[in-house]
Structures are given as structure tokens and as C-alpha cells.
Amino acid sequence: RELKFVTLVYRHGDRSPIKAYPTDPYQESAWPQGFGQLTQVGMKQHFELGQTLKRRYKGFLNETYDRHQIVVRSTDCDRTLMSAEANLAGMYPPNGSQVFNPDLKWQPIPVHTVPLDEDRLLTFPLPNCPRFDVLLNETTKTETFLNMTNRYKDFIEMLRNKTGLKDASVESVWSVHDTLYCEKLHNKRPPHWVTSDVMEKLRKLKDFSFQVMFGVYKREEKSRLQGGVLLAQILKNITESAVSGSKKQMKMMMYSAHDTTVVALQTALNVFSGRQPTYASCHIFELYKEDDGFFSVAMFFRNDSTKEPYPLTLPNCTQYCPLQDFLRLTNPVIPENWEAECRV
Ligand SMILES: CCCNC(=O)[C@H](O)[C@@H](O)C(=O)O
């Protein structure tokens, strides 16, 4: 089999918290660049991912940057734009004729984007979809959701009390975990009430909020309105690559995005682990031309920089899934008319 086309969807690197809870001793001024910003840890994570991708695709991609081979698109967020830049710095250090400044082992590579409020491809959950809001509301009435709310009722009450958050709920608890997780990673001592047991409960609730956002209840219909929109674009690029015979064709499409992007996509593919994707985790689609001339799609997920990306298999298919089967099996989550399907 011969590799023909690669699509990458990754989460940005380590960042400062998106916000602080009211009683948090660390407010925005505690962070060098303020809230929601890529840290130097995050820059290094993506630089390393870029170097790993360079090695993985040695012989497929040119050693030197070729604008015909790779296109990069990011959400319009500092942390995702900067993650893509750090990633590309690891992937394409200039050599020879591409060096424009002998004192600088870096060259500019374009990262495309669209304004956040116009982004209908990478920013999840996609907004302005009333039917999705109905499905989310119905989800909160399911036994699974009510059981979780019940089981953690007292815990959430404690959180409300300690954090000063008026609206602490199963949906909002991800934010408290996120803030405490970022502070811990950056050696900021947590308040006494933040025990490892509290962190573990917060993590479970945070992961649950990702699961219910795109799945748990009516996964397929939610995915048609969410992750299936991105999957449709990815499969369009893959199919175009399969049918085009041109040599000058694009070889890699790189998307720089968020945890919710990866979760929405993987839930649509029904391969989501249920755990929040780690910083700089990367979902990989590889299109191969088989010896018999037909095409297959293989998927991998890298969410641990100390290990090789592990294979993800589309349910009811094989690791190297024939393209026609991949399209047939994913068709139920591909919207025919997103606006119409969003209408209530
Ligand atoms: C409301 C804040 C939403 N969170 C984000 O944008 C983060 O980038 C989050 O998606 C992440 O991947 O950390």
C-alpha cells in the first residue's frame, strides 16, 4: 500500500486557564500572558509533535517546506494559531536555500483561519443550531445524566460553596477542573479543599460533560449537527485526493483546534475514549492506495508523546478500512443539509 493523503486534527498545547472561579487565589494577573494563552510548555509540546510528524512522514513529505504539499487551518484563537506555528517550526526548519536569516532556524509558513463567529468547521460545539440545543436539553433528562447529577449532588453543592460559583452544575464543572488542573501543572498551590479525591471527582464529571455534549443520547443525530460537519469536509478532501491523478496534489491537511473539536469528531466516528484529549493530542487519517488499486483509510490517535500513535478502528470495519466502506459506515452522521436539520 502507498500513502496518498494525510489529515491531522489536533488540540492546542498547554495553556493558562480560560478563567478563574470567584474565590480562586490566582486571578488573571497570576498568568504572564493572562487567561487562555499558550504557555512555553505548550509551545514545546507542539514543536515536538511537529518533529514527530516530520519523522513519521519522511519520504512522503519533502524535507523542505513545499506549499503545494501542506495546507494548515486553525481556529481564530491565539493558542491554536501559536500551536500551529510551533508545530510547523518543528516540522519545517529551513535548510539550504530556504534559510532567509542565517541566525534563525525558522521560516514563516502560512496558518489560515476565519473569524471565530464565522467558523463552522473547527469550533465546537457549532453554535446557532436549535435542534442541537433541544437534544442537549433532552440529554439532561436521561437516566444516565440524572444518575450522575444525583450521585454528585452533595459534591457539586460543596463546589458551589468553595468556589463561589452560583451556577456550578455538571455542565460547568469542567471549568473548575480545568482551572485547578492548569494551576497544578504550573506549580500554583491549590486551596486546602482541593484534595486528590476532589480532583478525581472533578475529572470524572469533566469527562462526563464531554461525553454527553456529543454523545450518550442520540449520538448519531447530535453528530450530524456537530462532528459530522468536520468529518464531511475531511472525507471530501480524502475522496478528492483518491480520485485526482495529479502529481502536484496536496499531501497533508492540518487542522489546529480544541479538545471539543477532537471529541466531536471522534464521537461522530464512534471512537471516542470518553476521556478529554490531552494537550497537543493528534487524530490522524491516512489515505492509502492498496496494491489492488482500491483505497483504504487508516486512523491513529497520538495522545501520549512517549508512545507511538495508536490505531483507531472505525466500528464494523478493519484498521485499513476500504474507502467505500468508510464512506458507507460514516454516512449516517454526515448532514445532508445542516441548516435544515438544525431547524426545530
Ligand atoms: C469556553 C472555553 C472553551 N475552551 C477552549 O476554547 C479551550 O481551548 C478548550 O477547547 C481546550 O482545548 O483546552
Please summarize what this structure is:
The protein has about 350 residues and is of the alpha/beta class.
Fold blueprint:
Layout: E1 2-11, H1 40-56, E2 70-74, H2 78-91, H3 130-139, H4 143-151, H5 153-163, H6 173-185, H7 196-214, H8 219-225, H9 227-243, E3 252-257, H10 259-268, E4 282-289, E5 295-302, E6 310-312, E7 321-322, H11 323-330, H12 338-342
Parallel strand pairs: 1-3, 2-3
Antiparallel strand pairs: 1-4, 4-5, 5-6, 5-7
Helix pairs in contact: 1-2, 6-7, 7-10, 8-10, 9-10
N→C terminal distance: 46 Å
Largest sheet: 7 strands, mixed
- Class from helix and strand fractions: alpha/beta
* pLDDT < 50 stretches: none
Mean pLDDT: 96
Order of helices and strands: EHEHHHHHHHHEHEEEEHH
What best-fitting shape do the alpha-carbon axes yield? globular
**What share of residues are in beta strands?**
5-15%
Bound molecules: N-propyl-tartramic acid
Please tally the helical runs, counting DSSP H or I stretches of 4 or more residues: 12
Helix content: 40-55%
Count of DSSP strands = 7
Question: Any idea what the radius of gyration is?
Answer: 21 Å
